[in-house]
Amino acid sequence: MWLMLHSGSRNIGKELAERHIAIARRLPHNTDLPDRDLAVFLAGTPEMEAYRRDLWWAQEYARRNRAVMMAVLCDVVRRMLPQVTYGEPISCHHNYVAEESYGGVEVLVTRKGAIRAGAGDLGIIPGSMGTGSYIVRGRGNADAYCSASHGAGRRMSRSKAKKTFSTEDLAAQTAGVECRKDAGVVDEIPGRTRTSRRSWSGRRTLSRWSPISSRSSVSRVDGWV
Ligand SMILES: Nc1nc2c(ncn2[C@@H]2O[C@H](COP(=O)(O)O)[C@@H](O)[C@H]2O)c(=O)[nH]1
Ligand SMILES: [Mn+2]
C-alpha cells in the first residue's frame, strides 16, 4: 500500500517569487527587454543572493510541511493497522529549482511541472482523482536535464473545467474512490486530466515504471489525502 500526498509551499513561494520578479524588472540591465518576463538576476549580485535565500527557504518550508503531514497520515493508518511498517518515503518536488551540473556547467534547473529523474531516483507521477498513479525510477537522461513530467497533464484550465463539468460528473468519474465530490473540487475532476496510456509513452526514455508499483496497486490511495 502506498500513501501519497500532494502539497507545496501553500502560496508563500509564489508571493516571494513575485516580489523578486518585481525587483528584477527594476534593475538597469532589464529595462530595455522586449518582454518584461525576461528580467533576470545576474550571478553573484546581492539581488540574486537574496532571491536564492528565499527560494531555498520556501522549498524547505514545503518539504517540512509534507514531512509533517505524512507523519500525521502514517499515525492515522497505524491506529487502524497497528502492525503496519513503513519503508523509506519518496519526497518528489514538482515545482522547484535545483543547482545541478551538465557538461561541466553549473545551472539552476527550474522544474515547473516536472520532477527530477536522475539515474535511480524514485519519483511519483500522479494520475488524477479517478485513476492510478505511477512510482517511477529515473534514467538520468542528461538531454532532458534528468527530468520527467510531474503528472498526467491537463486537458483544460480550471475555469473551463468548472464550466464543462458538474458535481454529478465528478461523482460519476470518481465512483469507487473515497474523495470529496462537492463543487469546490470540480476543477480537479479526472476528465480535466489526460488519462490515456499514449500520454505517458514519451516518458519512458526519461524514467521507467518501477516494478514496486503498478497502476492498480496505487489507485486505492488516489484522491486528496
Ligand atoms: N492521484 C492524484 N493525482 C492528482 C490529483 N490532482 C492532480 N493530480 C495529478 O498531479 C499532477 C500535478 O498536479 P498540479 O495541480 O500540481 O498540477 C496533475 O498533472 C495530475 O496528473 C489527485 O487528486 N490525485
Ligand atoms: Mn502540484
From TrEMBL:
Residue positions of the active site: H150 (gmp-histidine intermediate)
Superkingdom of origin: Bacteria
Reactions catalysed, as given in the entry: a 3'-end 3'-phospho-ribonucleotide-RNA + a 5'-end dephospho-ribonucleoside-RNA + GTP = a ribonucleotidyl-ribonucleotide-RNA + GMP + diphosphate
InterPro entries for this protein: RtcB, RtcB-like, RtcB-like_sf
Residues annotated for Mn(2+) binding in this entry: H6, H94
Biological process per Gene Ontology, one example term: DNA repair
E.C. designation(s): 6.5.1.8
Residue positions binding GMP: H94, N95, P126, G127, S128, M129, S133, H150, G151, A152, G153
Enzyme class: ligase
Cofactor(s), by name: Mn(2+)
Note on how the cofactor is bound: Binds 2 manganese ions per subunit.
GO molecular function, one term: RNA ligase (GTP) activity
A Pfam family of this chain: RtcB
Presence of keyword Translocase: no
Keywords linked to the UniProt accession: GTP-binding, Ligase, Manganese, Metal-binding, Nucleotide-binding, RNA repair
Coiled-coil stretches: none
Protein name: 3'-phosphate/5'-hydroxy nucleic acid ligase
